[in-house]
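ok so heres the complex, two chains, lmk if somethin looks off
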Amino acid sequence: MNAAYGLAGVMLVVVATVLIGVLGVRISRTTSDFYVASRTVTPLRNASAIGGEYLSAASFLGIAGLILAYGADMLWLPVGWTGGYLVLLVLVSAPLRRSGAYTLPDFAEARLESMAVRRVASVLVVLISWLYLLPQFQSAGLVLRTVTGTPVWAGGVLIAVVVAVNVLGGGMRSVTLVQAFQYWMKLTALAVPLVFLLLAWRGDGSPGLSSDAPPRFGDRTTVAVGVAVTVNVTAPVQVVVDGKVDGRHHRRAPLTLTPGPHRIDADTSVTFPAGADVPHVSGRPVTTDREWALPLDGREHSLYATYSLILATFLGTMGLPHVLVRFYTNPDGRAARRTTVMVLSLLGAFYLLPALYGVFGRLYTPELLMTGRADAVVLTLPGRLIGGLGGDLLGALVTGGAVAAFLSTSSGITVSVAGVLAQDILRGGVRSFRVGTLLALVVPLALAIAARSLAVADVVGLAFAVAASTFCPLLVLGVWWRRLTVPGALAGLVAGGVLAGTAVIVTIAAGPPSGFAGALLAQPAAWTVPIAFAVMIVVSLCTQRRVPKGVARMMVRLHTPESLNVDRGTWRPRRV
Amino acid sequence: MERSTGRPAERPRGVAAGRTLVTGPRTRTVRRPRYPVTREIDEQTGLGEAYMRSLLRTQLRLAARLCLVLAVVVLGLPLLFATVPEVREAEVFGLPLPWVLLGGLIYPWFVACGWWYVRQAERNEDDFADLVDRTEDRP
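and the predicted structre for the whole thing:
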């Protein structure tokens, strides 16, 4: 990809984001403005903002990458990320808006009248958010590296700085406007290049993916390896190497790669002849195109993994901190429901696109399976298929979209973590909110630079699993079940948080072990969510004396339409 | 609501002259509760609680019904793919069926489910509001 065009795309989105953010500053002055944009945002703009905030790097880059690598099973990811909003709509949207809480800890406090539950919820919000921010910063680094060749940490730092400027400058109102803009930006950035890709593919004779062969290089292809990688070669192949392979230097020298693992060092290029099988990163299964296109043929234990993924995504959406804070910008419970349906439509429209990128990636950029950089498929395709100035411009467009994805999700999460940090850990007030913003960004940025490189959609999937194992039971039982008690809620939150958290730490720090235990750790939701629900229910039933006194009033507040003049209690969220 | 005053009604049209329309004393057609329902709810009396429980039960039943349908479809599909290879390998319009379902058709279905739910939930709330308001006394 042409570096100048890519960089122009990055800068354009950054400048536009800051500008729109600054425009909002003039109107946002009070604390309440900072948090919830004064509840004067129109439904379409609110829905766009929710969509813009929700579609992260995992959606924009990660889905296509995982589909390229693992095929049909990964279609469940976008399905779950959309379906999660349907579950949220049906189970909690209107009651949550009616609760009047700004954040998840607010809700916990209001419903259970307990500061202990509030504190546990705060800690969980911060942990989930950091887990969500980490892959955003990592993939920002990869994108900037792909485009301009900067070091991997630079992209993360750039995103963190822009988000900090934006959040500190304007708070939520400016963020709402920015987010709404970024949904449409991301949709355009995927849809427009896709039209050209489809035309190019038709011009190529519409090749399909039903052969019984593994992916092969169509033409003589030079693969530039940016980060050192170990690949598995399946059949002997004569290549030309410029750089270091298996510890030996070669200068544009021919070399025969024997079947088995080979280590290719950073900044090495390997030229494969036309028709050669694409070697895969070690540990990634080689599948034929036919197997790839069928569900349940990709990873090991795929049926378990599919069910666990479905559970995590469908139930985890409601527990994401940055998703809930958006619902308070609706004027009432009904508006919250209608906005959610609009969000469903916007997400559905967007998620039609990444799968096609995955398919085209399998056809035209199979070398990404070898470099292990499948996440770059969306960025690589326009230049590969279209070429020339058009390819460069479209490449700049998708790069801009990717930057929009990092910025919007990171801003949203940062606002919600900063709010929680300011309210529950610092002293409160606008100054604490600012300190909280910096804390919210610096910790995951440091983690992103320190941790090994991870597939963005996998880590985001883990954040969903933790949210599904903790906040989903709290919200669903809190909204619908009068007999929930303080000890029950605490036990459930801790059980779900510790189990899912341990699985996450093992998966990220060490990589999951092989076999079924590995599948259980890499996709924990299928066992942690039922355990969390069970613990919360059983402990509540054992401690029925600790049912909060105001539960009846709270049920009135959560479920009666606003048109009725009834006593909804006096609880108000603490103003920071 | 029609107010009954107890005065003899003026002769309605269609009643012949010389005849008088005789009606019973319609004082209270609807037995008014002691308190307006909103007050029953506010004071958490047994009646108020009963109203609230009925609202919650209706809404929960609606939510549960939709979640059940969602679960059957979403959890059923992987099982179907796993147990019936013909479904997994079937093609529509030259595209593999799983891709058509998961990559396309499921999204409009989600939106349709969402709209249906919103309409039903709002209807339940309106019914509840009518129930509470109708029996509410006007001062």
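quick notes: The helical segments of chain B are 37-42, 46-83, 85-89, 97-134. thats all i got rn
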